[in-house]
Structure formats: C-alpha cells, structure tokens
Specification:
The chain is an alpha/beta fold. It has 6 helices and 7 strands; from the N terminus they run H-E-H-E-E-H-E-H-E-H-E-E-H. A 7-stranded mixed sheet has the order 1-3-6-2-7-4-5, sandwiched between helices.
Length: 188
C-alpha cells in the first residue's frame, strides 16, 4: 500500500512539473484602443536594444517561438503604426530601425485594389525616417534568430493587403554604432 501511495505521489509530482514547464504562445487579444495602447506603453518600458515591435497585417502568422507576444487590434495598420512610432519617439531609451517588405513596391493596383493608396499613406507616415527594405523571407530569418533570445511584440491589425507589415527593430537611442565601435577600439 505504501509503494502505491508513493508511486501516485511521484506521478502527480512529475505531471505537475511537466505542466509547469510547458510554454504557450497564445496571442493576447485586445480590442479596445485604450487597452492595446496601455499594453504597448507598459511593454515599451521593458523592451530595449535588440527587441522588436511588429505592426502587421491580418494574415501574419502566429509563430511558436516563446519570445513572441501577440496583440490583436481591430483597426487599420497605418494608424496603429503611427501610434507606435509616436510612443517610440517619446521614449528615452530606444529608437526604431524600420523594415518593410521589398515585395510591397512591386505589387500593382490591378493585382490588389488599394495598394497604391496604402503605399502613398505609408510613405507619409514614415516620412523623414530611414526605411530599409528586405525580402519577406529575410525579415522572417532575422525574426527567427532574434526571437530565440529577445522578445518580439507583434501588434496584429485588421489590414488585408499583402506585404504591408512594418517591422521595427529596437536600437539604443543614447548609444549608437559609432560609440560602440570607438569603445571596442579602446578596449583592444
């Protein structure tokens, strides 16, 4: 009888341990604008150099990496992006390195109705900011590498135009590449 109780106890202990080790990457669904902006504000204080914030279209896939946090907002991509960029502009510790899919510039209006208007509005939203373009798969490679070590905040919008996602890699706003290069030279 004593060995049966001990076996049951060990089984329960192992099951409890295994279930506590599981990670889930269920997206956090936020529908009210004030709520998702509060989540962004809170998370922005925790994010830093090498983290990412993605403002993506509706078809952006949920990835299984535990470093990815998802928020769904029921609004268009560009107003969401504008708000995120404004929050980053106000931060004292990070600035974005901006990436867009290279494919976006090759899609014709005949293929996707509304793509010209989106490109024009996106150019206004991103005016005065350096924007890098990469093939979609290259961006995913960068995200795959980063999300294994660093957190990625994905803000998923209701936009249904292809290749419109904007990827913001966070960089330190008060210590740039030139500072880092000079430091490394001094250390040698």
């Amino acid at each position: 009888m004593h060995s049966i109780i001990r076996s049951m106890f060990l089984s329960a202990l192992i099951c409890g341990f295994l279930s506590s080790c599981q990670t889930t990457s269920q997206p956090q669904v936020v529908k009210e604008e004030s709520t998702w902006t509060q989540v962004l504000e809170k998370d922005l204080h925790l994010l830093g150099h090498r983290n990412w914030i993605l403002v993506v279209d509706k078809a952006f896939p949920e990835q299984s990496s535990p470093g990815m946090k998802y928020i769904y907002v029921e609004q268009d991509l560009l107003p969401t992006l504008d708000h995120v960029l404004g929050a980053l502009d106000k931060s004292t510790h990070v600035k974005p390195i901006i990436y867009q899919d290279k494919e976006l510039s090759y899609i014709a209006e005949e293929q996707v109705s509304g793509i010209e208007a989106f490109r024009s509005a996106a150019a206004k939203t991103l005016e005065g900011r350096g924007v890098n373009t990469l093939l979609h798969d290259e961006v995913f490679s960068m995200l795959d590498e980063s999300s294994s070590l660093f957190r990625v905040l994905v803000i998923k919008t209701n936009c249904t135009l292809p290749y419109t996602s904007v990827f913001l890699q966070l960089d330190c706003s008060y210590w740039g590449p030139e500072n880092e290069k000079n430091l490394r030279e001094l250390m040698q």
